[in-house]
Amino acid sequence: MNKIYFIGIGGIGVSSLARYYLSQGYKVSGSDLVSSEITDSLEKEGIDIFIGQKSKNIRNDLDRVIYSAAVKKDNPELKEARKLKIPSATYAEALGELTKQYITLAISGSHGKSTTTALLSLMMIEAGLDPIVIIGTRLKEFGDSNFRLGKSRYLIIEADEWNNSFHQYKPTIAVITNVDKEHLDTFKNLQGVIKSFNKYLGNIAPQGKVFINAKDKNSLQAIKGISAETFFYNKKSFSKWPLQVPGEFNQLNAEAAWQIAESLGVSKKEARTAVKKFNGSWRRMELLLPKPATKLCRRCIYINDYAHHPNEIKAVGKGIKQAYPKKKSVVIFQPHQIERLTNLYSDFKKSFSDFDVVGILPTYEVAGRELKGGKTAKDLFNDLKKKNRAYYLQNFEDVLSLIKELRQEFKQEKLVVTFMGAGDIDQEVRKHFNSKLLPT
After folding, report:
1. Could you tell me whether strands 357-360 and 328-333 are parallel, antiparallel, or unpaired per DSSP bridges?
2. CA 258 remoteness from chain centre
C-alpha cells in the first residue's frame, strides 16, 4: 500500500485532496499546527493526524509528501522529507497531476468559486454524470465533506489563484466567475491578477472551453489571446434560479454552473431540480442557532460568512437586505491580513453601507504573510464611525455583549447578525453557535 503524508492537512483544499487519496486506497497521514473540526473528521475517517509539525513525524517508508503552499521552506517536516529524498509536491502540483488524468472542469474567479463548484456538482449528479469533486467548502449534500467520490471520468475542482496555484492545472473546461483586486500579496495590482488569469487560461487546449461572465470587464481582458473556445454568460437577463440561498451573486453563480452543465448534456429541468435541493455551503451565508448556554435571542437570525474582500462584503450585505428587508442588519467583521486591509482600504471603507450596525474585531494576521505597519482594524473603525453606527470590539465577549445590547434596543424587531471574515472568527462563532446546515 502506498503511503502519503500531507503537511497542512487541516486546510480546506489539502484535506479534500487527502480524502481523494484515501478513497484510492492509499495509507494517508498528515499534520497541522492546531486541531480543528477538519482534522477531527479526517481522523474519524481513518487518517493518522499529528498536531504539531516535527521532523520525527516523517518516516523513510513514505512514498510521497504533499504540502500546503503556506508551508515554509524551513518547516521541519518538509526539511526532513527532503533529507530522506522522499518525493515531495505542493498541493497545487499534486492536484495538477490529477487534472491531466480526468476530464477536468475547473471553477476559478476572485469570488464565488465554492458555490459555483457546488451547484455544478449537484447539477451533474442529478443528471447521472457522477463526478469526482474537490471543493473548498463543506457541503451537507456530501455528508458534511469537501470531497465526493464519483465513478465517472469527470473531475470538478475549485481552481484557486493565490500563489498562482491554478497555473498547475490543465482543465478541459473552465469558468471564470469574475476577476478582482484580490491576493495582491501575490499579484501586486489588478493588472497582475488579470495577467495571471490569462496565463492560466492558456493551459486549456484549443478544443477546450472557457465560460466567462460577459459583464465582468476584467474577465474580458483575461481571455485575450487564448486558444480555447470562449462562451459568454450573463450577456442578457436570465430566468431566476430557485435557490434557497439569497443574493444576486448566487443567481450568477447558478447561471455560470448551468452554462457548463448544459454543454455536458444536462437538461434545464435537471439543473433546476438540483438547484432547489442545494442547502448552501459552510461559511457561505450559513445559518446558525445559538447554543443554549450562550443565552442569546433565539428568534434573531444569525449568519456566518467567509467574506473578507470589500466586494464580497458588499454582495453579502446587499443579499441580506434583499432577503430580510424589514430587519436590522448587524455585521461583526474581522479583517483578514494587514496587507489586504491596507491595499484595499479605501474600498473597505465603502463596503458596509447595507448594514445598520458594524462591529470591527482586531485584524487576523497570517503567520509569515504580513506587512510591518499598514492599516489597522482600529483605523477602519475610526473611519467607518464617521458615517456608520460602528463599534470596536476587542474580543468575542464584546461581540456577545453588543448583540445582547442591540436586542434590547430593537425589541420589536428581529435582528440579522452576520459574522464575517476568513480568520479565526469562525472558531469563536462555533463555540457559541451550532450550524443549522451541518451537523455539530
Report:
1. parallel
2. 20
Q: pLDDT, tens digit, for every residue of 394-411?
A: 999 999 999 999 988 887
The whole-angstrom separation of Cα 386 and Cα 400 is 24
- What is the DSSP code (8-state) at residue 203? T
How far is C-alpha 423 from the chain's CA centre? 12
Phi-psi region of 196 (alpha: psi -120 to 50; beta: other; left: phi over 0): alpha
Phi then psi for residue 158, to 5 deg, are -95, 115
CA distance 219 to 439: 37
Q: Is residue 146 within 8 Å of 19, Cβ to Cβ?
A: yes
Which has the higher per-residue pLDDT, 426 or 440?
426
Residue 33 burial (CB count, 10 A)? 11
Is the pLDDT reported for residue 440 higher than 60? no
- Cα 104 versus chain centre, distance: 19
Q: For the segment 120-171, what is each residue's pLDDT rounded down to a tens digit?
A: 999 999 999 999 999 989 898 998 899 999 999 999 999 988 888 999 999 9
Query: What is the grid cell recorded at 370?
Result: 504580513
Helix axes of 425-432 and 396-409: crossing angle, nearest 10 degrees: 60
pLDDT single digits (tens) 193-220:
999 999 999 999 888 999 999 999 999 9
Q: Please report, as a single letter, which amino acid is at residue 78.
A: L
Taking the C-alpha atoms of residue 434 and residue 307, their distance in angstroms, rounded to an integer, is: 19
Q: Which amino acid is at 106?
A: A
Summarised one tens digit per residue, pLDDT across range 14-56 is: 999 999 999 999 999 999 988 888 999 999 999 999 999 999 9
Q: What is the DSSP letter of 386?
A: T
Closest alpha carbon to 52 in 36, 31, 74: 31
Average pLDDT over residues 71-99: 94
Query: In Å, how far are 12, 67, 262, 440 from 149, measured between CA atoms?
Result: 16, 22, 22, 23
Q: Give the cell for residue 292.
A: 443554549
Residue type, 402: L
Segment 166-180 shows an average pLDDT of 94
- d(C-alpha 56, C-alpha 161), whole Å: 33
pTM of the model: 0.86
Distances in whole angstroms, Cα of residue 123 to Cα of each of 152, 268, 277: 14, 9, 10
Spatial distance between the Cα atoms of 50 and 80, rounded to a whole number of angstroms: 15
Q: Sheet with 103-108: list strands edge to edge.
A: 145-148, 132-139, 154-158, 103-108, 173-176, 209-213, 229-233
**H or E, element range at 209:** strand 209-213
